[in-house]
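Hey team,

Filing this mostly as a record. A colleague (T.K.) asked me to run one chain through the structure pipeline before their review meeting, and I want the input and output archived in the tracker in case anyone asks later how it was produced. No errors, nothing strange. Just documentation.

Input sequence:
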Amino acid sequence: MQIGICGSHRTGKTTLAEAISKKTGIPFLKTSTSAVFQQHGLDPAQPLDFKTRLWIQQRVIEAAVEVWKQGAFVTDRTPLDFMAYTLAECQGDTVVDFLALEAYLNQCFAVTHKFFTSLVLVQPAIPLVSEPGKAALNRAYIEHLNIIIQGLCHDERLSCPSIIIERDIIQLEARVQRVLGV
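Output structure:
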């Protein structure tokens, strides 16, 4: 079983993934998007031009694939997250290389199908807490990402089953039960 917890930053993905791992004995595999950004001299809290965003997201998925090759797992990031952050950069006058974007999206869907048996979307609900090196605490941006990921969960190109944790499910044990009860 390969469970991917997806959603915007600061929604409790890592905490939920760790709790599921502890309850089921399925290994928790942490993906560190922030570490990939830092390794390449970028700050995940700062806006990026589209070319840079696509480049760093490619590094992020490459690093994640190395982690996900380990068999059964529960993890705190998925290719849907990576796609959402990339798509969120496409606004107004953003100059987008659509062929490169489409290739990246197709790669993300292919990686999802290869490595995941189920996806769980954690929506914004818990109180926001700022941490150094983490993405910005902009509620509108977090909601924007949430809506993009919801759309990706329903995209016809996604064949991996997904569930959405309702916003009123805030307690950790209730979230774990929601995931394991499906």
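Quick notes for T.K.: The beta strands are 2-6, 28-29, 73-75, 118-122, 162-165. The first strand starts at residue 2 and ends at 6.
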